């Protein structure tokens, strides 16, 4: 369980007090910063952007740079890409060990993962991949529907590198050995979900927020899909508040 989830904050009175602190934080003229559990601290602009219905959720630049190296290797190897022999970056392997984030769990304890992916150039588009580690299969939840054959083919192409990278991470983090299974380097198969109950994005900037809700609904809400585009504004505000509420004041090394 994440250390940024505090069950003692459950009472309505405490919740209201915390919301007041959040409102005061956003009104401060001085640039106070918060540690939200990522590698860098953030200021109030981070929370304001989360709340803004016209803003996109951004991607991790560090991960993007590493991903481009994977693309280069994959493109050079083409069909001869050896997933089990490929030496991927240690940062990627740490996800499999359960060390990114630091309160994660080793992959070998589970059979499924939810992986958000930002695909497409130059603007990017968030989709959610439900990964079955044992069956080597990925189900795509695409919030724009992706019902046409051409879009589905494009999604398969965009996820080609992930389909090859996953077996490499699984092998190097000990997924197969810890489950007493024979290592498999076979590329993952892909299918776009045809679930008609899944809410669809209408605007052009809510894809990241949608997949956060997709993941939450799949994991915690037992497939209760009774929400949609009209709830995105409130969901953004609640997301920003919850991140703030479970963060801590940041002090730079200079201040310590």
UniProtKB/TrEMBL annotation:
Domain of life: Eukaryota
Gene Ontology MF, one: deSUMOylase activity
InterPro entries noted in UniProt: Papain-like_cys_pep_sf, Peptidase_C48_C
Positions of region (Disordered): 1-26
Any matching Pfam family: Peptidase_C48
Compositionally biased residues, Basic and acidic residues: 15-26
Record organism: Dipteronia dyeriana
PROSITE patterns: ULP_PROTEASE
SUPFAM superfamilies according to UniProt: Cysteine proteinases
One GO CC term on file: nucleus
Keywords assigned: Hydrolase, Protease, Thiol protease
Protein name: Ubiquitin-like protease family profile domain-containing protein
Protein family according to the UniProt entry: Belongs to the peptidase C48 family.
Ubiquitin-like protease family profile domain: residues covered: 1-218
GO biological process per UniProt: protein desumoylation; proteolysis
């Amino acid at each position: 369980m994440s250390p940024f989830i505090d069950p003692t904050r459950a009472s309505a009175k405490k919740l209201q007090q915390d919301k007041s602190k959040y409102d005061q934080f956003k009104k401060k003229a001085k640039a106070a910063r918060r540690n939200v559990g990522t590698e860098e601290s953030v200021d109030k602009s981070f929370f304001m952007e989360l709340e803004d219905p016209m803003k996109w959720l951004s991607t991790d630049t560090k991960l993007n740079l590493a991903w481009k190296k994977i693309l280069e290797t994959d493109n050079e190897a083409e069909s001869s890409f050896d997933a089990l022999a490929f030496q991927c970056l240690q940062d990627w392997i740490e996800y499999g060990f359960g060390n990114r984030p630091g309160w994660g769990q080793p992959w070998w304890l589970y059979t499924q993962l939810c992986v958000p992916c930002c695909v497409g150039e130059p603007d990017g588009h968030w989709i959610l991949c439900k990964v079955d580690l044992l069956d080597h299969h990925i189900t795509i939840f695409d919030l724009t529907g992706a019902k046409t054959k051409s879009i589905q083919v494009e999604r398969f192409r965009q996820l080609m590198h992930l389909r090859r990278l996953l077996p490499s991470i699984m092998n190097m983090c000990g997924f197969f050995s810890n489950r007493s299974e024979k290592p498999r380097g076979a590329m993952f198969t892909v299918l776009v979900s045809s679930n008609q109950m899944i809410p669809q994005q209408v605007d052009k900037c809510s894809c990241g927020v949608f997949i956060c809700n997709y993941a939450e609904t799949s994991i915690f809400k037992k497939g209760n899909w009774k929400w949609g585009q009209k709830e995105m504004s409130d969901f953004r505000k609640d997301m920003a508040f919850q991140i703030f509420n479970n963060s801590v004041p940041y002090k730079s090394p200079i201040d310590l």
